[in-house]
Structures are given as structure tokens and as C-alpha cells.
Amino acid sequence: MHEDRVRAGSFGEDPALYDRARPSYPDELVDALVAGAPRDVLDVGCGTGIAGRLFASRQCRVLGGEPDERMAAVARHHGLTVECATFEAWDPRDRQFDLVVSGQAWHWVEPEAGARKAAAVLRPGGAVGLFWNQGQPVGDVRAALDGVYHRRAPGLEAYSILLRPLGRERFEAAAAALAATGCFSAPAVTAYGWSQRYTTGQWIDHLLTHSDHRTMPAEARTPLLEDIGAVVDRFGGSMQIDYTCWLVTARRVGSGG
Fold it and tell me: CA-to-CA distance for 141 and 106, rounded, in angstroms?
């Protein structure tokens, strides 16, 4: 996915919507990553700072890296320091970090180059934490929504993380790239479960923050979203999304650089 720059750049079309509509991450995950009391945290692909703010609230010094200036401006508004560049092109200027994190963004980074760069900017004993939310509706509403997608957007389920189980391939690929550097302890993959309830409008806003929906032609997207809204309305105007947040972690071993 890191090669699809059209989808990667779609998030910045409405950064305020992204900041408002995207979910956060479970406290247990953040607590696990800060258990070693990291001081300096690098947030790769920080977007509008949804993840970075969680670490800043735990007394970490957070530096965000974000290729889209429109997204970075929102993160700065929230008090984060952000430098605009892709992770591959970003110049660390000899700075070192205790923790490198990436929330919902590492798949936009070239895996091998990203793993090597994470190793290069981590202090010995520092850690990397890469995490992704995947959520699915529960109960009868899911079947009803599946019917809408089958009718209005056949084939979208083949690649949309909103419509199919994400599986472990994305996480295992990230873990394998970290392991291949020879600079990390054996990576671990951990899952955290949590839930969030959305109104009809909130769910439509959420869908518009996903590149697979946002980059659809308007003539296809508009009736799709209308039918999705009608389904949620039929089920009482709100629905529960059960999330799994997947975390890939590894610790830097040996000398830095």
C-alpha cells in the first residue's frame, strides 16, 4: 500500500473530519508502550495527532512525522511538534528516541526501509510499537450492511479493512521486516479488544476518513453512503462497532545507528 500515494494523500482533503471521526486507541495499549517510561517518542505518520496526544498526555516528549502538511497543521494545533516528510525521506539529524510508534499508518511506509530507519533512530533498549484498529459492526446490522456493499460496491470488500477481517498478514509482515534488520528482539503481536457506539452521522463521517471509501467516484459513493445511513437508521440510528487493536512490538538490541 505504501506505493499508492493517491490513497495515502486522500486523508488530508478534510483533516478536521479525520480528527473528529477517527477512533482513538485503547488505554491498555498505550500503557503497555509507556511501561518503560520513555522520554522521547517519535510518532511516524502522526496524522492529526490522535495517537501522539495519548503519549504526550503521559508526559512523553512527542515528535510527529507526517507527509501531509494539512494533517500536520491540525496536529500542531493540538500542541504537537510535527515535521513534514515521509518517514523514508525524513532527516533525523542525529536525534535518538526511546520509542517509535505508528498508529494506523505503518502500511504507508516501505516495510524494509521503515524497519531499518526505526532501528537507526532508537536508543539501545528502546522500543517500536506499530498498531492498527480494525472494527466490525455486530449483530444483524452487519449482515444488512454487507447487503448494501454487495449491491452498491461489489468488490470493495476484497481490500477494505472495514469490510473484511484484516487477518495477521499485515502485522506479520511488519514483524518480519523488523526481525530481518537483526537489530530487534523477537517481535510480538498483541491484540486489544474494545468497542465504540456510532450514530448514523458519526458512522458516515468515519467512512469518509477511509481512503478506500473517500477515493470512490462521487456518483458511486453517494448512493452507497445513503443506503448505509438508511440501514443504521432502521436499526435505531446507532450501532456498536467492536474493535480489535493489533500491536506489533520489538525492542532495539545492540548499539544504535
Answer: 30
